[in-house]
Amino acid sequence: MLYNRASLLTRFFNVSSNHLNANKSLLGKLRKKTGYSFTNCKKALELNEHDIDKAEKWLQEQAKTLGWAKASKLAGRKTSQGLISIAIEGKHAAMVEFNCETDFVARNKQFQGMALAISAACLNYAKTQAQATEPCSKE
């Protein structure tokens, strides 16, 4: 008799697969469109009644709020390490200083590659601005 009651209770538990597929589709679209994590996209859709436009706006507001908070927290940190990247071609040159917090980052191949790529981009910009009388600077 107990077995029959248990089977009756489980019979009423049903999840519509169409509803799940629709949510997965919206979740996939939102993740592809925004690049935010699965968890954040799911939360945004749930809070905004599965409206993808409202969810995207909510995600942007959250990112802005959290991003500014994190940036202000990191603003005072010292960046005593780094490197200087120089790119020269003909009569044009670009010299860019890159700062970081640790020497481990400064010695990292990805950081060094980024420095080379950015200094090359600055050199290309300087070549296009050859008519200018003032040197290019960060201001």
TrEMBL record:
Residues 93-132 form the Translation elongation factor EFTs/EF1B dimerisation domain. GO terms for cellular component: mitochondrion. PROSITE patterns: EF_TS_1, EF_TS_2. It is found in: Mitochondrion. Associates with the EF-Tu.GDP complex and induces the exchange of GDP to GTP. It remains bound to the aminoacyl-tRNA.EF-Tu.GTP complex up to the GTP hydrolysis stage on the ribosome. GO terms for molecular function: translation elongation factor activity. This is Elongation factor Ts, mitochondrial. Belongs to the EF-Ts family. Keywords: Elongation factor, Mitochondrion, Protein biosynthesis, Transit peptide. It comes from Cacopsylla melanoneura.
